[in-house]
Backbone:
């Protein structure tokens, strides 16, 4: 890596052990002091094979490394694998992204790189742009009209999803992994004193480039990822009860991509959803969405089973759905 670590004795240039697929997807990685990663390489590869960052990634039969020393260690630790010595161009994009992020200086927020490979970032931006173009905030009557979202391959079961922006600003999709997480969020909204206890939530936000943190803006401009309009730059914010706000991992980006693609598909025919939210029969749709990590089977329901009969469905006049309107950037 092209950076130095200081503040703990003598400065040093860290080493990075990373495992990728042949497509360049990062399956696992670890940073350490010079020389210390070699002794942990076998244990780390074994852990990565058992729990790769890309859900469902197959176990390798061949491992290619650029270091003769590392090849020797892996051959001893994995006699069942073919360990080849050769160039590893798949790592070029990974390290380029890491160095670009480091060169930008200390970030106020971390966007994607270096945690997530470029193809996954691009796929997420494409899915977010497709959703934004649909103007979903004009298709979902209110933030109280919620979805249930299941993607078992990503460890998601009956998550609660709500959309913000019906008032014309603050466009976002909020994903709560459990009903308890949503209740924590709702309680926090009512009690500002709980601000230091963030709920578990993944937020897909859209904003103008000028309003984004400096490092996020630099990364988006440098990569040229697709966006739907001048106010439609997507970014993820994640909070966790244990660690507070944290940068997205590959699994989070894959989840956000799958969610955006699922919402785009189900909202393409909003009429049954409107009936469900305004007292009609619940809607359940099951299908597969294509993500950069492969197909993901999803189930999406409206309204969320825990909120049947709640929300604004009784507030609309008979036979009336949400108001018509233009998308946020329809005139762009």
Residues:
């Amino acid at each position: 890596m092209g950076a130095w670590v200081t503040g703990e004795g003598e400065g040093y240039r860290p080493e990075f052990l990373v495992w990728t697929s042949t497509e360049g997807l990062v399956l696992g990685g670890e940073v350490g002091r010079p020389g210390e990663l070699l002794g942990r390489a076998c244990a780390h590869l074994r852990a990565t094979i058992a729990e790769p960052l890309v859900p469902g990634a197959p176990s390798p039969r061949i491992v290619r490394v650029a270091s003769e020393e590392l090849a020797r260690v892996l051959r001893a630790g994995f006699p069942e694998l073919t360990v080849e010595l050769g160039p590893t161009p798949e790592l070029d994009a990974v390290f380029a992204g890491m160095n670009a992020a480091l060169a930008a200086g200390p970030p106020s927020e971390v966007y994607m790189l270096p945690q997530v490979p470029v193809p996954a970032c691009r796929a997420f931006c494409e899915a977010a742009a497709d959703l934004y173009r649909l103007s979903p905030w004009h298709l979902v009557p209110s933030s109280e009209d919620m979805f249930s979202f299941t993607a078992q391959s990503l460890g998601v079961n009956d998550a609660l999803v709500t959309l913000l922006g019906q008032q014309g600003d603050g466009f976002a999709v909020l994903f709560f992994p459990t009903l308890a997480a949503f209740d924590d969020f709702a309680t926090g909204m009512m009690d500002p004193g709980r601000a230091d206890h963030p709920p578990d939530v993944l937020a897909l936000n859209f904003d103008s480039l000028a309003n984004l943190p400096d490092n996020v803006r630099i990364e988006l401009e440098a990569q040229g990822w697709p966006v739907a309009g001048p106010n439609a730059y997507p970014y993820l914010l994640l909070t966790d009860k244990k660690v507070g706000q944290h940068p997205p991992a590959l699994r989070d980006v894959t989840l956000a991509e799958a969610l955006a693609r699922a919402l785009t598909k189900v909202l393409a025919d909003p009429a049954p959803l409107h009936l469900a939210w305004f007292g009609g029969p619940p809607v359940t749709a099951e299908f597969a969405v294509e993500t950069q990590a492969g197909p993901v089977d999803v189930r999406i329901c409206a309204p969320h089973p825990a909120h049947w009969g709640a929300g604004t469905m009784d507030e609309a006049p008979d036979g009336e759905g949400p108001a018509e309107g233009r998308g946020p950037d329809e005139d762009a």
